[in-house]
Amino acid sequence: MANEHRLTDGVSVEAIKTFFADLQSEFPDTYTEMTTEDACKQLVVPRTRQDNCAYVEQLHKQSPEHVDKATVFVSHAWRYKIADVLNVLLEFADEQARKDDSKPVFFWFDLFMNNQNANVTANLPQEWWSTTFKESIANIGHVLLVLMPWRDPVPLTRAWCLWEIFCGISNEGTEVTIQLPKSEELELVLAIAGDFKAVTDTLVRVQAERADAFNPHDKHMIFTAIESWAGGFSAVNQAVKDQLRAWCLQKAVGAVEAMRARGEDSTDAFAELCGAVGSVLSEFGEHDKAIAYYETALAIRLRTEGEKGGNVAVLYNNLGNAYFSKGDSCKAIHYFEKALAVFVEARGEKHPSTVDTYNNLGNAYSGKGDGDKAIELYQKALTIKVETLGEKHPSTGDTYGNLGNAYFSKGAYDKAIELHEKAKEVFVETLGEKHPSTATTYNNLGNTHYSKGEYDKAITFYEKALAIRIETLGEKHPNTADTYNNLGAAYVDKGEYGKAIHHYEKALAVFVEMLGEKHPSTASTYGNLGIVYTYKGEHDRAIQLCETALAIAVETLGEKHPSTADTYNNLGLVYGSKGDFDKAIQLYEKDLAITAEALGEKHPSVAMTLENIGLLHAKRGDKQQACAYVQQALDVFATTLGANHPNTRKAERNLRRIRGGAVTRQHTSTQHVSESRLQQQNVLAHRNLLLRFISSAVVYQSFAPQRNLLMRFLGAVAHADVDARRPANTGSDNEDKKTGTGHGCPRGCSAPARALYKDACKCPGEPVAGWLRKRGRRRAAFRPCWCKFDDDGHLAYGKSASGTAKRRIPLSSVLSAELAHGGEEMHVAVPGRTFVFRLDAHSDTSLADWCTAINNRINTTT
């Protein structure tokens, strides 16, 4: 390495041919079995020993025209057969020569360029490996990786090769080409057609930290260089995997194009290859390209088999899966239903393919937001599986899990838990505790308890799932990373942001290494981290993470994918939290447009975004716009999830809070209110708010008898005000009950007037109870608790609605109860401490109502 030309010079194609001919001449019986190391010891070293020089130096003296500036750096393994390596170099040179802009090829081939009579790397400084070597490859401009055998490529296990590939990939402007021997090319094409999984499996074997080298000194120096590089081993692994991924896709597509060029594009063999290539592309997330290949295969199968052909049904199913993965549930349903019709007629109702398609259809309807239809399909699949396979069969367990997820999406969490518990029992009995399917069920149970607000239970199940996945799948598996993500989410809602970030970062490291930087799961985890930093108040960091997520989502899934919409939603959340409401609304509107187009106007995700936009308009002070958006959200939630779903109830509460009064349930359709009616409602709301303010002042400055008298007076004023405004014969008492006003309160009152009237007329001991979330001491996480007023003058709270409350706040000691943080929290102050409450997903009473009830009872006891 001491001579500078060894870093930049290369040998010509003719020199390679001459060396190959010499090898065959001197070792006619064994040259085909000789490794590169054998060729070095038996041919190169004997020829160069006397001069103690590199082979290229002798070549330069004898035939200087065959030595020039290197154009291609050759990366290979010395365990390869030398004949295979030389053939690959010649095949590569021949391909280059056929290009229009072809230039002479000169190979930097270490067998020739290094002095094989000495250990040339022994005395090189560490800086040479980190900079000079990398700069030399950049100067050459092209790396050729000789890859064989493709099923278990040797270079991916050698430290030298991984470092050479990475140096090429990480140099901007350096081209990297992966080349197989012709015999290997044929085997690869057959594997793609027969078992595409075998192709994709090659991508998960790159682990630079486990790579070896013949020379321990070289290995140490290379590893030190890798560790000093940004990203270390993970960056090297991922860069190589991304390159292999692109190469696999290129080979898959190339195999199809080669058949088309030979005029074989109307044969069943071509259809089979197109279907297999579609599956490879779908596996890599290239769904649009996969769909194109599936459709090409389908056209041939329809012509050769007819509409009822078995391969036709399989392709319909594959198209359904591709559209479902793409986020287009409607088209997925179309193809799954076509597949189902063929399977039922050709193979019968109880055939495994038929049952699998029922499951696929259930998934698609669930993705479309139609939980009832999903449940119907899963139930059909379950009935058949129980009958044909039995209750205790893993496939039956899978369907129990699907049903559980469908009930989960409808908000029927207890039913979902019941089904997931059944699935767990099946898996534990048939597959054992330490099985990935058992882990998946624990994960599902964690998700359900998480949605119930039972974060400690959720974490317990997630940790069980994590332990099994680490043991059975390994630390660096996407499913393991999914569980890290779930744990992160649970800790976010517990308010333990440090733990949340820790788990999200573990998930991110796995996704980046195993799936790549440019992958939807990686994007999603960047978005999750962005949300945590939002809650921590680090908005600039949050924006950076969410924008990284958005860039990846757009590149990998496209602008019109629901996951891309989710990323816009996350960015909207960050800007909204930062106080930039206009920017936040703009981002939410992008989310809304994509989600509505991809999933339909009547989808829970659309409703979520509508509600987010409405809440931002409320913060901007635009009450009319806020009400319009939240009302739309409420209608969609009620239509798709039902009136009792937590999301529906939450939207109702938000609408009630924004309007400043109660809202009747308008679930079937949005009812537009005229301008004059809106103005009248606003006047009433403002008048009642003023009366409420006066009443609160009275409450704090009056004894109980005075308070009751004044409250009744104010209630009468409110009553008289409504009587003066409403037309005669507005309805009977029964109609009052239908509108939900109750308690003899006058119809037409908004929530403040009704609350005022109830304050005036009700018994002070009227019960108020429900779920809230209470913050622990020392600003610990918020946890669900059942709150109520007991008979002894306490605000009591505990873990269960049916059990005895373990904690009590004496109302006689309460100094104040008031809303804080824009109405998101209720602060109940006692001497020396403030209790902080938030609404729970299952709350049926607003924080404002709780505040009123507590203050009423405070003053009743004084």
TrEMBL record:
Keywords: Repeat, TPR repeat. InterPro entries: PH-like_dom_sf (IPR011993), PH_domain (IPR001849), TPR-like_helical_dom_sf (IPR011990), TPR_rpt (IPR019734). Residues 725-745 are annotated as: Disordered. TPR repeats lie at residues 313-346, 355-388, 397-430, 439-472, 481-514, 523-556, 565-598. Pfam families: TPR_10, TPR_12. Residues 766-861 form the PH domain. This is TPR repeat containing protein. It comes from Salpingoeca rosetta (strain ATCC 50818 / BSB-021). The lineage of its organism: Eukaryota, Choanoflagellata, Craspedida, Salpingoecidae, Salpingoeca.
